[in-house]
Amino acid sequence: MPRDNMASLIQRVARQARITFRSPAGPAFGENLHRLQQLLDEVRAEDLHLAPRGPSAAAAAGGGPPWGGVVPPVSYMHICETESFSMGVFLLRSGACIPLHDHPGMNGMLKVLYGTLRIACMDTLPAGAAGPAAAPPPPAAGSGPCLRALFRSRQHYTPASPPCLLSPHTDNLHQIDAVDGPAAFLDILAPPYDPQHGRDCHYYRLLEGLPAGAEPPALPREVWLVETPQAADFWCGGEPYPGPRVCL
Question: Which end of the chain is more exposed for a tag (fewer CB within 10 A), N or C?
Answer without folding.
Answer: N
